[in-house]
Amino acid sequence: MLIIEGLTRRFGERIAVDDVCLEIPRGSFVGVIGRSGAGKSTLLRMVNRLADPTAGRILWDGRDVTALRGRELRDWRARCAMVFQQFNLSGRLDVLTNVLVGRLNQVPAHRSLLRLWSAEDRAIALAALERFDIAELAAQRAEHLSGGQQQRVAIARALVQEPDLILADEPIASLDPRNTRVVMDALARINREFGITVLCNLHALDIARSYCDRLVGLSAGRLVFDGPPDALDADAARQLYGLEADEVVDATPTVPPAAPHVVPFAFQA
Ligand SMILES: Nc1ncnc2c1ncn2[C@@H]1O[C@H](COP(=O)(O)OP(=O)(O)OP(=O)(O)O)[C@@H](O)[C@H]1O
Questions:
Q1: Residue-range domain boundaries for the chain
Q2: Is the distance from the beta carbon of residue 34 to the nearest atom of ligand 1 less than 6 Å?
Q3: Atom 25, ligand 1: which residue's CA is nearest?
Q4: What's the pTM value of the predicted model, to 2 decimals?
Q5: Is the ipTM of this structure higher than 0.85?
Q6: Does any ligand 1 atom lie closer than 6 A to the CB of residue 217?
Q7: pLDDT tens figures, 29-51
Q8: What is the sign of the dihedral through the CA atoms of 104, 109, 114 and 119?
Q9: What is the CATH number of domain 2-88+163-248?
Q10: Could you tell me if the CB of 42 is within 6 A of ligand 1?
């Protein structure tokens, strides 16, 4: 369970996240929605401590992760895999090596420094690529892939990290509609098949409604909506999006939420 208590982040006079409280059970797929500048990225970045809160606490299974330092903080970050809008791959490295980077925390330091990947690590990385139908790209340089393929590589890298949480910050913002579906499907599979909690910042409300089992809406840093997608009515959307509400509201969910089916990690093909 992820518990966020009174989480606040100020940048000078500006409050990016303002006294947010949430309880997120394991295995949830939560969409964080709101206008540009609402505080979505700052909220996610605080969860894995890329940004530190000005006030408040974050607890994972009862442990205060806001207090972690040094090795414990590195371990926490390894358990919260990030997926970014711009994929954050090493373009000149091949796809398999990019995925193996997700294993760095699982291997002894001397091996990770020398990039000495074991046959088991390679098999795990390859199986993750197979899972997302991109194993045939394993030897290609990441920079030669399309945006949708690169994002699937980034999700495979997140998966081999064996995280408790995936924090996806606008993972589909630079993708076309077809790749948007492919990438959201990949996140949904990780959530359902492995029971990994997903927090996903999304601009597109129709996508958030289709894929997430819960929506958390921020406006000027404050939590103004927290509920299932079908509870987000026109009034709630207007509170979140103001005059843009009519543009972003699509009342028809396009993909019915699927029941979670949890299996342990098993990457080997
Ligand atoms: N490092 C920073 N320094 C100063 N202000 C910041 C910083 N990071 C974020 N902010 C401000 O905090 C507020 C929230 O920003 P944040 O990026 O979290 O919003 P967002 O909802 O993710 O927006 P977008 O959807 O455009 O990415 C904004 O007003 C932003 O300008």
A1: 2-88+163-248
A2: yes
A3: 36
A4: 0.88
A5: yes
A6: no
A7: 999 999 999 999 999 999 999 99
A8: negative
A9: 3.40.50.300
A10: yes
